[in-house]
Design goal:
With about 300 residues, chain A is mainly alpha-helical. Chain A has helices at about 1-25, 35-40, 55-65, 75-90, 120-125, 145-150, 175-180, 205-210, 220-225, 250, 265-295, 295-300, and strands at about 100, 155, 160-165, 185-190, 195, 230, 235-240, 260. In chain A, strand 2 and strand 3 (about 160-165) form a beta hairpin. Chain B is built from nine helices and no strands. The chains are: A mainly alpha (about 300), B mainly alpha (about 190).
């Protein structure tokens, strides 16, 4: 009997609260934008906080009041951005896809100081006398980034350097976090020309540690018509906003550290073209000079 | 008055809900990464603990005890706290939108905070009257606020520390919390009024 009484009392208590809450939800109803639940539905609903807001509904609120872009959710990606754009009645700004890029092409071309036989990951390798490579900047090739990659987009190439498969890469940058040498950056997928070296040593040192190192000679900087490549801290770096994929720099690089590496034939051809241009310019200059010397004569 | 002051001091320092009674550890660990959010959570907890103390005391005194249902306290209090928090949330959203947005997601999260249920049960256990219960609730919340803000300010600095890989994140935070609890044990002998 006691049990029945207890159940009864608590049930009644619960029912009273239910009624109060039901009434309250009507009395205190707040008009919300009907688009808000729609946006929440379009988001993944994982409440992961990847967007920087406290959960999906908070993110939706910020999208609604315009303080967050429609593609604020990195997890939902383009699919949810399109849905939300449709709800909000705007075009999804098609931010260009970026992929990871490993700024080293040393591998077997890099000189080794000693043979490392420890735990096979890059962090451990760097802890032993600052790593087995002469180069203090290069890829160690033990594949910490490969382990970190969830998408099978990271591999150690034949030359012993890590490379990214741009098709599989989702730009999560887990590899960049795993890399003890901070070699991996995010680059626009449409840009094909990259400097694959971050060695900041002076030219002579850089030259001695690796066959594919940037020595900061500045030939690429002079060659670039678009002011897109610059040598700072003894290493070339590309300004992707200005680069037009013309590959001129790859052809003049004496160290083959700008990808895609130009073949010797391409380089020869380019040299020949440049030489012809130079000859032509020289001939023109000579002709002009001759005219200059010839012209003043009548006046004298 | 002396009683009230002694309850307040006890709830904030000596019997701090986090460090001495180990109640409300979940939000304490969960939302203590930034001082701002920690303050938000602390204020919300203080608010709800004060209200919950009042309502559960009334329910206990005028409903459960007369009906000889005191043994159902835990269940009844959970029911009351859950309903109360939901109601308060709706009320704030309508009447005080500024406070509602300030408390944000912390308010509904508190529904299942064991510090809130704990304060309700402790009020009964300690045989407090209505005023004492409310004071204990609010000051218990203030104790929570103090603990979580101190902890958050330490964690903000911990980010820049370089612990061994296995200790990164939560493990080192738990170690920190343990040390802080140890420090708060220094208050355990404090007895202001003899």
């Amino acid at each position: 009997m006691n049990i029945v009484f207890a159940i009864l009392v608590l049930s009644i208590l619960g029912a009273i609260f239910a009624v109060i809450l039901a009434v309250a939800s009507i009395v205190f109803a707040v008009k919300t934008d009907p688009r808000l639940p729609e946006i929440v539905d379009a988001l993944p609903g994982a409440n992961c906080g990847g967007c920087g807001y406290a959960g999906c509904s908070d993110c939706a609120g910020h999208i609604l009041d315009g303080s967050a872009p429609v593609n604020a959710c990195p997890v939902g990606g383009a699919a949810s951005a399109e849905k939300i754009a449709a709800i909000m009645g705007v075009e999804a700004s098609s931010a260009e896809k970026e992929v990871a890029f490993v700024r080293c092409n040393g591998g077997t071309a890099a000189k080794k100081r000693f043979e490392y036989r420890g735990v096979l990951d890059c962090v451990s390798a760097t802890k032993v006398a600052a790593g087995p490579l002469e180069c203090g900047f290069g890829c160690l090739g033990f594949g910490s980034c490969v382990t970190a990659c969830q998408f099978d987009a990271m591999h150690i190439a034949a030359n012993g350097c890590a490379v990214v498969d741009p098709v599989k890469c989702t730009d999560c940058m887990a590899c960049a976090t795993a890399c003890p040498r901070k070699l991996i950056i995010s680059v626009p997928v449409s840009k094909k020309v990259h400097v694959a070296c971050i060695n900041q040593d002076k030219g002579k040192v850089a030259m001695s540690v690796c066959a594919n190192s940037c020595i900061g000679c500045g030939l690429c900087e002079k060659e670039c018509k678009k002011d897109a490549i610059h040598v700072t801290n003894n290493v070339a770096a590309i300004d992707y906003a200005k680069c037009i994929n013309c590959k001129m720099c790859t052809k003049v690089c004496p160290r083959d550290c700008i990808l895609p590496i130009a073949t010797p034939e391409e380089k020869e051809k380019y040299k020949a073209v440049k030489k012809a241009q130079a000859d032509k310019a020289k001939a023109a200059a000579e002709a002009a000079a001759a005219a200059q010397t010839a012209a003043p004569a009548p006046n004298a | 008055m002396k009683e009230i002051f002694s309850i307040a001091l006890g709830a904030i320092l000596v019997n701090n809900f986090i460090f001495a009674q180990f109640l409300g550890i979940c939000p304490f660990m969960g939302v203590s990464k930034k001082i701002d959010t920690a303050i938000g959570m602390g204020v919300a907890v203080t608010f709800v603990m004060g209200l919950a103390s009042a309502f559960t005391w009334l329910a206990n005194e005028y409903l459960l005890v007369p009906l000889n249902l005191a043994y159902m306290q835990t269940v009844a209090f959970i029911l009351i706290i859950a309903a109360l928090v939901q109601f308060v949330e709706m009320f704030l959203q309508k009447s005080l939108p500024a406070l509602y947005t300030a408390l944000g997601i912390y308010l509904p999260l508190i529904t299942t905070n064991c510090a809130v249920l704990g304060v309700a049960l402790l009020n009964v256990q300690n045989g407090y009257n209505f005023i004492e219960s409310v004071v204990y609730g609010i000051t218990g919340g203030l104790g929570f606020l103090l603990a979580i803000v101190l902890f958050a300010s330490i964690r903000e600095r911990l980010v820049f520390a370089d612990p061994p890989k296995a200790f990164e994140g939560f493990p080192i935070a738990l170690v920190t919390a343990g040390l802080m609890a140890l420090a708060f044990m220094g208050f355990s002998g404090a007895n202001v009024f003899g």
